[in-house]
Amino acid sequence: METTKDIKKTPVRRLRFFGDPILTTPTAEEKFDDPNRLNIQIGRMVDAMYRYGGVGLAANQVGYENQVCVFDTTLIEDEVKGNFDDGNVLVMINPKLSDQTQPVLVDEGCLSFPGIDIRIHRPESVKATYQDVDGTEQEITATSVFSQAVCHEIEHLEGKLFIQKLSHNQRSFLKGKLRKIKKLSEMVYIRM
Ligand SMILES: [Zn+2]
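Above are the sequence and the zinc ion SMILES. Below is the predicted complex in structure-token form.
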């Protein structure tokens, strides 16, 4: 368990909200040129994922600009083995979808869109290739919520947002809420 001391030691990365340009900018390929930098980044992403309560988190949601995403395997029904730290976290670097089944309707939220849950289509199952922390090529099959999370995080890394899957009408229905979230992203971040 994390203690107050740990929290003081490493400030949690600020979550980026809809309206922040980093969320609509495609991230760059991770080149594995600095293992130490990568390890620190992943540790901070994991902290943030736990703190904000996400099933997954993409690098650009907390201000990084490379193709890294993390998943909390304890929140996923698939028997997924973690590959980082205590084994509860799966890290995917430079992930790409290699196969997918027919889409089904699911409910979905996003940490960068607080208070918004939408119904969209996601494949029931996907295959994805990625590299682990050592740069070794891996492939994984994900179903159900995990499939949804993999698609969601890969789209983040491509600079895409889940609301882009909505029709113009559906989106205008959310206008008020979206405006409020945009204000959050424009606020100067001051905490005391
Ligand atoms: Zn998201």
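Residues 4-186 form a domain with the Peptide Deformylase fold (CATH 3.90.45.10).
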